[in-house]
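FORM 12-B: Structure-to-Sequence Request
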């Protein structure tokens, strides 16, 4: 077999797609290969129905930032392989990240490890997102013309359902994006499929129209689950779940879940939400901007009752927390580096499933996994580190 370098796009056919998905037995098998990390509490089970049988690593590999060139492809592919060999079994991407290259790099890494027998598909949770109109590999000379020809003129993305010229969650568009993501990753089934920053549409459509679009997207997702193309779905947000009610981009999670119930009934598959949580952005835990059956609280404080797993993005605030962390905070947590302090803070948040960290080089993985070898902070220790945002 010819060895791939990560520089080539992953080209797959239906016959070469990797089947399977994350399972309780598979993720437990992965955990058992890393006993020291397991003993330190690095693997945990989200307190969400159905999902709660999975063992997920406390830190996951994110793939947002980076150049769109061959060298970065190689580095990302090697980073994903290093992560999977080091005890990280949560991979997060999106079709628009690095113009689809990030999905392809993840696919190349997984294929190499599966082909050599180092990894089994049921051991890892692979998550992607769709919503933003993506380019393919490179930034075209005429971006608007490319999007028009690729998505609008083909009927993939109806012009009337594209918000702000760049965001769509119409069912036909989501089907197209999922098929591309399957090809990019080489995976027959994606474990988690997020609607990517759906709140982007709230600045362009009325709330009732937005909910209609959300309901249609969720019905599409339920069909994708029935077809075996995804296992669960959710929303990956930046502002929607961490701003105050009344803000234009605010999303009420209880209303979102009611919409999922309308789409899929009592057994709907909306099981994941993703939002930022880091030393500079603590709203996921400290801002009581959500409610459930009259009880007010934050996303994390109500997560178990919502029946959803919460994933943190922006653990290092897109690199801003690799420096400038107060010395007193590092001393209190017993860590030397700013990045390690930021990682330990986020991964220790009560009720969190996984903290995502962008890792584009293998040495990033080796550094960050050292934090995962430390015991998690207790709730009392964690809450004592910051003053929650006003609720």
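FORM 12-B RESPONSE
SEQUENCE OUT:
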């Amino acid at each position: 077999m010819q060895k791939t370098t990560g520089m080539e796009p992953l080209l797959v056919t239906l016959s070469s797609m990797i089947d399977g998905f994350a399972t309780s037995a598979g993720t437990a098998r992965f955990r058992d290969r890393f006993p020291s990390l397991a003993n330190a509490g690095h693997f945990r089970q989200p307190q969400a129905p159905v999902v709660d049988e999975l063992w997920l690593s406390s830190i996951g590999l994110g793939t947002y930032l980076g150049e769109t060139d061959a060298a970065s492809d190689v580095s990302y592919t090697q980073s994903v392989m290093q992560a999977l060999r080091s005890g990280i079994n949560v991979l997060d991407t999106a079709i628009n990240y690095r113009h689809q290259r990030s999905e392809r790099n993840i696919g190349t890494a997984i294929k190499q490890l599966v082909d050599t027998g180092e990894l089994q598909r049921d051991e890892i949770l692979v998550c992607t997102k769709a919503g933003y109109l993506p380019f393919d590999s490179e930034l075209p000379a005429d971006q608007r013309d490319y999007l028009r020809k690729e998505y609008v003129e083909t009927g993939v993305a109806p012009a009337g359902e594209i918000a702000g010229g760049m965001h769509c969650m119409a069912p036909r568009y989501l089907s197209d994006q999922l098929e591309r993501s399957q090809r990019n990753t080489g995976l027959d089934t994606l474990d988690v499929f997020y609607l990517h920053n759906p709140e982007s549409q709230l600045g362009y459509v009325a709330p009732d129209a937005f909910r209609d679009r959300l309901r249609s997207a969720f019905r599409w997702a339920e069909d994708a689950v029935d077809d075996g193309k995804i296992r669960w779905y959710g929303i990956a947000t930046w502002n929607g779940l961490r701003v105050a009610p009344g803000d234009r981009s605010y999303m009420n999670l209880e209303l979102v879940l009611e919409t999922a119930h309308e789409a899929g009934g009592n057994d709907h598959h909306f099981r994941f939400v993703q939002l930022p949580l880091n030393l500079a952005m603590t709203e996921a835990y400290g801002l009581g901007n959500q409610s459930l059956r009259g009880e007010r609280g934050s996303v994390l404080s109500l997560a178990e009752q919502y029946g959803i797993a919460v994933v943190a993005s922006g653990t290092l605030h897109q690199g801003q927390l690799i420096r400038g962390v107060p010395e007193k905070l590092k001393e209190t947590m017993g860590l030397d580096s700013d990045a390690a302090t930021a990682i330990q803070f986020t991964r220790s948040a009560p009720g969190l499933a996984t903290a995502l960290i962008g890792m584009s080089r293998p040495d990033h993985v080796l550094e960050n996994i050292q934090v995962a070898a430390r015991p998690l902070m207790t709730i009392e220790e964690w809450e004592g580190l910051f003053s929650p945002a006003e609720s």
